[in-house]
Amino acid sequence: MLTAKQQKILDFIREGLVRGSAPSVREIARHFRFASPNAVISHLRLLEQKGVIRRQAGRSRNIQLAGGNAVPSLRAIPLLGAIPAGLPVEEQERAGEFLHLDPAAFGLSATARTFALKARGDSMTGAGIYDGDTVILEVTEARHRDIVAALIDGASTLKRLIIQNGESFLKAENPKYEDLLPARELLIQGVFRGLLSPNRQRL
Amino acid sequence: MLTAKQQKILDFIREGLVRGSAPSVREIARHFRFASPNAVISHLRLLEQKGVIRRQAGRSRNIQLAGGNAVPSLRAIPLLGAIPAGLPVEEQERAGEFLHLDPAAFGLSATARTFALKARGDSMTGAGIYDGDTVILEVTEARHRDIVAALIDGASTLKRLIIQNGESFLKAENPKYEDLLPARELLIQGVFRGLLSPNRQRL
DNA sequence: CTGGATACTGAACAGATGAACAGTATGCTC
DNA sequence: GAGCATACTGTTCATCTGTTCAGTATCCAG
Hints:
2 copies of one chain form a homodimer.
Chain A: H1 4-18, H2 25-31, H3 37-49, E1 53-55, E2 63-65, E3 75-80, H4 89-93, E4 97-101, E5 114-118, E6 134-138, E7 147-152, E8 155-164, E9 167-171, E10 180-182, E11 187-196
Parallel strand pairs in A: 3-5
Antiparallel strand pairs in A: 1-2, 3-4, 5-6, 6-11, 7-8, 7-11, 8-9, 9-10
Chain B binds a DNA duplex (30 and 30 nucleotides) through helix 3.
């Protein structure tokens, strides 16, 4: 669909977008050693016709990728050290850090309520979740065998949810721990959607 | 540290950056109903002094957030359906899809060689990795009990690496599978760094 | 009440920028 | 070889843009 030259120009534009802002017409011309800005203009017109970029006339550095090439719209996901008892998560969001990521990559809808949590302890090492890992959670209904952040006795823990005969239990993923925690007053705060496991020393 | 007005201007700039490119000086002035672009310039100077933004003189729409406010610099990570036998990953990169994410969030250095892989099969369900999940891998040295993408007989699989008495084995995380795969000619392609587990129906 | 930081107005300028018009060259298809 | 899309050069123009200089107003601290 795109010619080799068009693809190169598209790549250059994407490069610029990823590092901050789109290149200007003359910056593109300089990079490809075009003597005339019009060479760029006509390329941009073609790219726009083919539907891979979008622009608004007249505004400088105004190129956006369209379709599958689009640079993802980042979501800022609140990174909570530990969820407090109250759960009005919204209150906490402004204070802490944020994790920027592309919701589409995580299979999250644009409207999904999402937060992140630093995992503590070693009760989930069997599921590949180690102390210090960051866990992405979505506020949604939990299913059997989902890993969930749950509130027990005012403290929030990460465990696997087991639903048997209509009863819910929490299961640690580490032989060192009791297998099933009876979960009365079980409050599911979020369902596991992703894991960020930085390269650090493990035992 | 920042005054209320400075914070508002910083927020407006971030808004612009997130949706494509920084606002121009006069766009900022218009938004805040400043009659003079100089009002903006002096604000920008202050913001730059306080270290929350960075600019290069003369270039239009050239505002970047600095420090903790920084909009993350996305990395485009190649998403490989399955790693082919040859492993010159660079060759494959151009073809497929890309996953955009913030390397810092994944504990990846800016220079880390990274790729993503769609997990297939159910051999790692015990580690929370299901069929269809996306796994982020870093090309680096593997340690004992790391989850790795490894090449065996020309096919690439995801397994846990077990190093015992100087010998390396691969272990599936599912009781259905043989526990230890003797790994002669073991080629580690990448080490597990992250997991994207979209919200889809599981068994 | 004085000084300094903040928060502006107003005017002006050089260079950057998107866009248009006119024209050339090349390769491909029918 | 006629027609057409692509891929440019070269020039000009109005507008946008960052920046500077000069000046005013407000508020808070010493």
